[in-house]
Amino acid sequence: MDIDIFKDILVPVIGGLGIFMLGLEFMSNGIQSLSVNRMRRFLAQAAGTPLKGVFAGTLITGVIQSSTAMTVMVVGLVNAGVVGLRPAISVIMGANIGTTLGNGLIALPLGPLGLIFAGFFSLVYCFAKSEKVRSIALACMGFALIFYGLNLMTGGLRPLRNMPEVMELLSTLQADSYFNLIKCVLIAALVTAMIHSSSATIGIVMGLGAAGILDWTTAVAFSLGADLGTTITSWIASLNLSRNAKRAAYAHISFNIIGVCITVPLFFVSIEVLRWALQFFGGDPSVPVMVDGRETFPLVPVAVGLYSTVFNIFNTALLFPFVGVFERVLSRIGRTSEEDVEDFSTPRYLDRKLADDFALAVPAVQKETARHLQAGALFLDIARGAKNAPSDPGEHYLATDILSRDIRSYTAALMKEDLPLEQLDLIASLIEEADFTAALTESLHQVARRVRRETFSERARMIVDKALDKLDASLRDILPDFGIAQPRMPDGHVSYPDVEELRASTLALGPNAGAAERGTILALLGSIERAEILIRRIDNERRSVNRQAIVARASARRQTQSPPIADGDFSPVPAE
């Protein structure tokens, strides 16, 4: 039978591959638009310990169906300081398990129905008015296109079996020895690195295996290489990010390399175990099944999906006890003194164990709010270009925003119905102060951004410096111990121009400064004016309730109500 290479092979294979990858993209985008922000918040909260990190990584990747997107998300969260290096390593382990759910779904024999479902959900997507419905339809359309594309690829690859030249070339890709096994793994890793999708590589391999082009053992070997090659995307995503973000990417790479190195010597033993396990799924994957007079191998996709799943679970279980070792080793890579700068995204004083003790929880909130305020004041150092200041104002603001949310959440949890009115009033005051502090930090961030992104002339720079000095002086009212230089002259002999005077000086610059420069200074003065209003609000809020007296009464009440301590017991103390 004559084979038209263009019509019978190139069109269905290239078209099927494109539809397959488009389906992956649609499904990932649809699911992520529905839940990625929720997943990001869940990850930031859930990845507190390595075990929780594995669970969070598995769950989220199973939902968004992209270990690549998940790993890039983790690298970004590590870069922002939301997730530490140690839990990030465990999240990446979980991501490798979660992505295997997609491989298992791809193996389902739903190809012929894919086009029908894709057409139906594309109509829903086109005519739906709700953004949520459109996102669901997009995800379902992508899911259906995956199967249709895989079905097209399988049909297009099947004629290759009748071409001796192709079969002779592919015969060199036989995982029948350790040397050939390593060659297959490296080729699959290279392909995956180029297309940035292990799912796409595994889909291609499943198509080749189902068509009988690759024997099932070689197809399984290619799935190992796909797990290895997918690490390249996280490495690329980390190139311009923080050192910890790079270390998270290195963890992904080293984790998969170690797993493959351990699995390769056990490959042929594991293949026999897999052959035995496949008896429960319908028989031997090497035995063809006749469909419309053609030989197919429907169990090969099942074998590939099952092996990939077991490999990642085995790899995680094997390396999970060594998460601490990974962290210690990776933490030494590229370490400098800059990493000793305080991480403001992580609360220092908020301890959930104290939440039920009003007398201990309130001082903890006060200390953390003061720390948040101190972090906000660092924006003035950023604006001045101080050497000890955080290098990126956006990254520092993200850290303070995370801390602000933690403070509000912790403080709100203190508000219990059985508390006396004065204690409820104090908690409400703390919540308001935390809110004013967050708003002040945002204004200080705007000050730093505006100063950093504009080059000022000499006269304009003098106005900017006066404005920053004025804000410094205002901050001392609520943050007296902040490390800013005190005036050389005695207190009371130094006066700072008000905002109106600085605004008039800016307008008087005339041709000595450009319009953009003057506009930046005027916007800067607006931010400073808002910041000073918030400083006064914070100061007034602190005076609105006699906090010290209320806490003292609560402490005395706690001591009188506490049961006597038995011999050998220890008095509870706040956590460090």
TrEMBL record:
<dbReference type="GO" id="GO:0005886">
    <property type="term" value="C:plasma membrane"/>
</dbReference>
<feature type="transmembrane region" description="Helical">
    <location>
        <begin position="178"/>
        <end position="196"/>
    </location>
</feature>
<feature type="transmembrane region" description="Helical">
    <location>
        <begin position="101"/>
        <end position="124"/>
    </location>
</feature>
<feature type="transmembrane region" description="Helical">
    <location>
        <begin position="298"/>
        <end position="326"/>
    </location>
</feature>
<feature type="region of interest" description="Disordered">
    <location>
        <begin position="553"/>
        <end position="576"/>
    </location>
</feature>
<feature type="transmembrane region" description="Helical">
    <location>
        <begin position="43"/>
        <end position="64"/>
    </location>
</feature>
<dbReference type="Pfam" id="PF02690">
    <property type="entry name" value="Na_Pi_cotrans"/>
</dbReference>
<feature type="transmembrane region" description="Helical">
    <location>
        <begin position="253"/>
        <end position="278"/>
    </location>
</feature>
<keyword id="KW-0812">Transmembrane</keyword>
<dbReference type="InterPro" id="IPR003841">
    <property type="entry name" value="Na/Pi_transpt"/>
</dbReference>
<protein>
    <recommendedName>
        <fullName>Na/Pi cotransporter family protein</fullName>
    </recommendedName>
</protein>
<feature type="transmembrane region" description="Helical">
    <location>
        <begin position="70"/>
        <end position="89"/>
    </location>
</feature>
<dbReference type="GO" id="GO:0005436">
    <property type="term" value="F:sodium:phosphate symporter activity"/>
</dbReference>
<keyword id="KW-1003">Cell membrane</keyword>
<keyword id="KW-1133">Transmembrane helix</keyword>
<feature type="transmembrane region" description="Helical">
    <location>
        <begin position="216"/>
        <end position="241"/>
    </location>
</feature>
<keyword id="KW-0472">Membrane</keyword>
<dbReference type="GO" id="GO:0044341">
    <property type="term" value="P:sodium-dependent phosphate transport"/>
</dbReference>
<feature type="transmembrane region" description="Helical">
    <location>
        <begin position="136"/>
        <end position="157"/>
    </location>
</feature>
<feature type="transmembrane region" description="Helical">
    <location>
        <begin position="12"/>
        <end position="31"/>
    </location>
</feature>
